[in-house]
Amino acid sequence: MAIRIRHADETVLEAHEINVTPFIDVMLVLLVIFMVTAPLTTVNVPVDLPSSTQQTAPRPDEPVFLTVKADHNLALGENDVPAAQLTEALAAATKGNRDERIFLRADRTVDYGTLMDVMDHLRSAGYLKVALVTLQGQTTQGQTTGTTP
C-alpha cells in the first residue's frame, strides 16, 4: 500500500479572474447614449397652445355644468353653490349617479391651482368623468374662427 503525498508545487493553478473589459465597453456605450438622449427628454420650450376647432362630442340630454367664476366661486348649472356644499349639490343634480359626466367650465382668469382644487374635490366626491369646456374655434387673440357652443 502506497501513500502518495501531494505537494503544493504539483497542483495546477487556475485563474479565477473576471474579464471586465466587455463590461466597461458596454457601460461606456450606455453612458454615451444617455448623454445624447437626456437633453432631448426635457420639455422646456415655451409654447402658446392653440384652441381646438374640431367638432364637439354630442352632449347628454341634461348636462351637469360646474362653473368656476373669476372670483373663484362655484356655480352648479345656474345656481351658486358654496364649496362646502358641492358634494351634496352634485349628488342632487346627478341623482346620485357618480358615473355621469361633469362639464367643468372655468373663467380664463382662474389660476391652474384653483382649477385643480375643484377637480380634486370632484374626484374625492367620486365623480371621475370630468370634461373641460372651452369655446370652440376661439383663437388666442379673441377672434373666432368657428362657431361657439
Question: What are the salient characteristics of this protein?
Answer:
149 residues; alpha/beta; 5-stranded mixed sheet; 3 helices; 5 strands; 28% helix; 13% strand
Question: Topology, please?
Answer:
Elements: H1 21-41, E1 64-68, E2 74-76, E3 79-81, H2 86-93, E4 102-106, H3 112-124, E5 130-132
Parallel strand pairs: 1-4, 4-5
Antiparallel strand pairs: 1-2, 2-3
Structural description of this entry:
Residues about 140-149 have low confidence and may be disordered. By secondary structure, the chain is of the alpha/beta class. The protein is elongated and about 110 Å long. Helix 3 links the parallel strand 4 and strand 5. The protein contains three helices and five strands. The longest helix is centred in the first third of the chain and has 21 residues, at about 20-40.
